[in-house]
Amino acid sequence: MQVSRGTVYLRGKTWTIGYTVGGRRVREAIGTNRQMAEAMLKKRIVEAIEDRHFNVQKEGRIPFAAFAATYVERCISVLKSAKTERNRVNFWVREFGNRPIGQVTRGEIEDWQARKRQRCKPATVNRILCRLRHMFNRMVDWNLLDQSPMKGIKFLPENNARLRHLLLEECQLLIDSCKAPHLRAIVTIALHTGMRSGEIRNLQWRDLDFDTGFLIVRDSKNGETRHVPMDSTVVALLRDWTRTEGSDFVFSNAAGGRIGWLQHGFRKALGRAGLTDLHFHDLRHTFASQWMMAGGDLYVLRSILGPKSVAMTQRYAHLSPAYKRAMVDRMEQIWAKPANRPAELPITVPENRRRLLQRHNHTTKTTVAVNA
Fold first, then answer.
1. Contact at 8 Å (CB) between 263 and 178?
2. For the chain, how far is it from start to end, CA to CA, in angstroms?
3. Residues 6+ positions from 295 with CB-CB distance below 8 Å
4. Tens-place pLDDT, residues 76-107
5. Which residues span the domain enclosing 280?
6. 6-28 pLDDT per residue, tens
7. Residues 117, 236: one domain?
8. N or C: which end of the chain has fewer CB within 10 A?
9. How many independent structural domains does the chain possess?
């Protein structure tokens, strides 16, 4: 069989090999490592000379790690949560290493799912599996596999909704327990606006519109810009906040950059306040709950918080059992009879029968009179 010498070339950011076998041109994307591409080209030519050539793409012979490198450059680098998703890809690289992608089976993925669910929440397991599923789908789309081994695998049912929110007294207790001024300010804004930690720490001075009373969130989780109203507490706090010279961020570090997450300080504040089982994101839940308990509109809440689905807003806007009880009492007042109008006594069966007899007798007397 006639085989060409082949070439190694850069296609975009991916090293690709090309060679001709029996008059048919073959191309194969290898990854970001040129030495690996050159070694793979030699191997393919030897296989073709020894008449062991096959369609390597459909056979799934590409190493998983090599595919992952190409996948990260093509698919992950453009994502908003690139760091998180890159970590998930690297997790699977550690799991499968340089095994050919065609050797990964559905059975071992389901075994991993069963083991992982014993230690992690269903949502955590599903997010990691979701990234692997996307990787295998791209393998199929790029003609590297005939079928994904994840086809037919069911994700775990999720129920991660937390019912943790603070009472108004607890909110003030937490604020007073924050010793660092910047932590106290960030916690206050979170409780009064429902903004996420990252959204608050991303705020720049150009995002503060005191004329309209809105904070502009330009880098939200779903990628859409939204306007969050400020109450008098937030307005007063931000008006009096000292701006760091040379920094565009409202809350900046010593170098003028975006301030990091204050997890240690937040945990210390929780300890001083005597609050347990509380995450920073629960401050967002607290805002939503207090909003609804004050009679706020669900759809307005959705525009403030920013989730795309109403169902997610309803998850944030869960109500306390005491408030639900108050709503039931309110319904009882709605259906109650006014005090100035006497309630009619229910008609008993004998009384009902007496009225029917009177009506019948009246009809009979009328008929007799007409006939006479």
1. no
2. 124
3. none
4. 887 877 889 999 999 999 999 988 898 888 88
5. 168-324
6. 889 888 878 888 888 767 777 77
7. no
8. C
9. 3
